[in-house]
Design goal:
The protein is α/β, with parallel strands linked by helices. The chain contains 9 helices and 7 strands; from the N terminus they run βαβαβαβαβααβαααβ. α1 packs across α9, α3 packs parallel to α4 and α4 runs parallel beside α6. The protein binds NADP nicotinamide-adenine-dinucleotide phosphate. NADP nicotinamide-adenine-dinucleotide phosphate binds next to α1, β2, α2 and α7.
Length: 254
């Protein structure tokens, strides 16, 4: 039976990288954290990664439950939120973090790669926001944070699909912020720059060097740098902030 005074926090894609750091940063005794993941290629490794996030959240003083839910599936997402709302009766925070890349030059990009990236990075965020917002509207409170990207503001060769999804997410954030403000729901985006995670680990040394040369602070970011901005946006201190994009990029974008 859920404790109705506890906050319910939902983070998409919390098994590793930035999502895991967000779960840890939001850990507190008065919050239930639900996160999901989806890796059809290596379910055993993914379950172990999710268990590791749960353990780290517990060590940070909170509690978290990870579950395999594909954000690209409308049915899975609907069932997932129904279960959460059934358990805790509320949703206080939604962080749309799950994201993928399928890079390629515009002229060679396959439609399936365009569709897959737009589906997970943009449409899934819309899907989760639509469900969570209905509960938040009834509560007359809520915080939504969308993880965009610095490239959504400046563009990036080889990432037409990814950049379009993140620019779209910024537009979605601003519109939702305007629509939901009267119900005391804030909607903001965090736009990371070049952050050390699995997503960037596979880049060639040449690409990494080129990225680093564009960062005034002279280093790649850590998942914790992004998580700190999310923690701020979901805190009481950020109650008067909505429709904003906080760039956590070491100054890559100003
Ligand atoms: P990551 O290490 O690749 O982790 C991605 C997370 O999303 C994983 O937990 C993954 O689950 C989950 N995920 C992927 N597809 C999913 C699906 N269909 N359903 C449910 N979960 C799914 O990536 P990251 O670097 O932490 O990135 C997190 C977010 O930050 C993304 O939105 C990304 O675009 C954004 N971002 C990252 C950077 C960067 O430099 N790293 C920069 C700007 C923005 P599995 O582990 O099961 O695959």
């Amino acid at each position: 039976m859920a404790d109705k005074d506890k906050r319910t926090i939902v983070v998409t894609g919390g098994s590793r990288g930035i999502g895991r750091a967000i779960c840890i940063a939001l850990a507190e005794p008065d919050a239930y954290i639900y996160f999901n993941y989806f890796s059809p290629t290596d379910p055993v490794a993914e379950e172990a990664a999710a268990a590791e996030t749960e353990k780290l959240v517990t060590e940070a003083g909170g509690s978290a439950t990870g579950i395999c839910v594909n954000v690209a599936s409308q049915d899975e997402v609907k069932n997932y939120f129904e279960k959460i709302i059934n358990d805790t009766k509320r949703i206080d925070v939604l962080v749309n973090n799950a994201g993928i890349t399928k890079d390629g030059l515009l002229v060679r990009m396959k439609e399936e790669d365009w569709d897959a990236v737009l589906e997970i990075n943009l449409k899934a965020a819309f899907r989760c926001m639509q469900i969570a917002a209905k509960t938040m509207m009834k509560q007359r409170s809520g915080r939504i944070v969308n993880i965009a990207s610095v490239v959504g503001a400046i563009g990036n060769p080889g990432q037409a699909n990814y950049v379009a999804s993140k620019a779209g997410l910024i537009g979605l954030t601003k519109t939702a912020a305007k629509e939901l403000a009267s119900r005391n729901i804030t909607v903001n985006a965090v736009a990371p720059g070049f952050i050390e995670t699995d997503m960037t680990a596979s880049l060639t040394d040449k690409v990494k060097e080129s990225m680093l040369s564009q960062i005034p602070l002279g280093r790649a970011g850590k998942p914790e740098d992004v998580a700190a901005a999310v923690a701020f946006l979901t805190s009481e201190a950020a109650a008067y902030l909505t429709g904003q994009v906080i760039h956590v990029s070491g100054g890559m974008y100003m």
